[in-house]
Amino acid sequence: MPKPLQKHYVKHRIQICLHTSDESHALKEAQQLFHEVSKQWRELRLKNSTSEFDKYLVTHQTQPTLNEALEVYLKTKGHNRAENFFIATRRNISYLVKAIGDKALEQFTTADASKFRIWLMDEQGLSATSTRRVMSSVKSVFNLSIGELGLAISNPFSSVYIPPKEVTGRSAMPSELLIKLQEKCLKINDEKRLIIALLSDSGMRLSEALGLHKNDIDLDSSTPSITIKEHSWRSLKTQSSNRKIPLVGYSYLAVQKALILSTSDYLFPSYCNSTTTKSNSASAALNTWLKRNLSKDYVIHSLRHSFRDRLRAIQCPSELINELGGWSKASVGESYGDGYPLSVKHEWMQKICSR
After folding, report:
1. How many CB atoms lie within 10 A of CB 323?
2. Average of per-residue pLDDT across 313-317
3. All residues at 6 or more sequence positions from 67 whose CB lies less than 8 Å from its CB, including other chains
């Protein structure tokens, strides 16, 4: 029984004896009773509409399809939520529609859920963590629908098996493979590939690169650089993430090309605007491309691991490594003073580009 209507009944479960031992006859009787009680519920909803699903059922005689349930879910749960909530939820449901189709909620099965997991991990290249995140979003849409509509079904996405262990794909990328990747990205010269090239010689996190405003970039000084700071459309992971990074190697070339391509105030306008930075969608798209064109062993975050290993290989001081990558300081002493001058940072970063 739908929760909003329980107050109209003495008990929360309706039980009626059908006075028959014939299974086929009982099924017909039960179906007729269900239609009658459904009609009664619709009339009660008309008198006292209390939820978005109530409003839906006032004008619809059938149960909603997945996309219809999505819209009601967003209206119900979206109050005062950030734009990312709507973007992520719509994206995750669109994945399910693409893999399985848009059909009535009652028609989805546990077999569909398993097929969807396979589609996400094998065909789209999503990690177990990303797959789990998508499944959680889909499960929430179904949970709300089942609860509000009083559907006599269990959530087919509630117990989907997802491998608990996975290859993280965060190994440091070998230098010869990194160079091959950098050259390919600059040759293609589109927004996605320029994001990868920018990350390759800068050590930035993906969200840091995506949230760059053109004012954060300085190509006119003797030492070209990028200032990473918090913006209303993109927060930073830690206080140490606030920093200035010299632009060298392929990262420098990528910024030059991205500035030419960008038609807005943001370096990567497809993934950033005045209200949000679309890190999740960028990560999924870039990781899928990397796995298809480079190797399944690496993801976009592998570039950051490689950056740290490349600095280690030239015996760069650990304090400077932390400062360049925006990693947390290893000791209280590292927080004293203003840190390394930009020129010194530039010298060390040039060394990893010449190897």
Report:
1. 20
2. 94
3. 93, 97, 102
pLDDT tens digits, 220-248: 999 999 999 999 999 888 888 999 999 99
- For CA atoms 175, 177, 181, 184, the dihedral sign is positive
Whole-prediction pTM: 0.58
DSSP codes joined into one string, 187-201: HH-SHHHHHHHHHHT
Distance CA 233, CA 88 (A): 16
| Residues 347, 88: Cα–Cα separation, whole Å | 41
Are the beta carbons of 323 and 243 closer than 8 angstroms? yes
**CA 110 – CA 130 distance, rounded (Å):** 20
Q: Confirm if 227 and 178 have CB atoms less than 8 A apart.
A: no
Residue indicated by tokens 């005689």? 61
Q: How far apart are CA 77 and CA 137, in angstroms?
A: 12
List CB contacts of 29: < 8 A, sequence separation 6 or more.
18, 20
Phi-psi group of 337: left, alpha or beta (phi > 0 → left; psi -120 to 50 → alpha; rest → beta): left
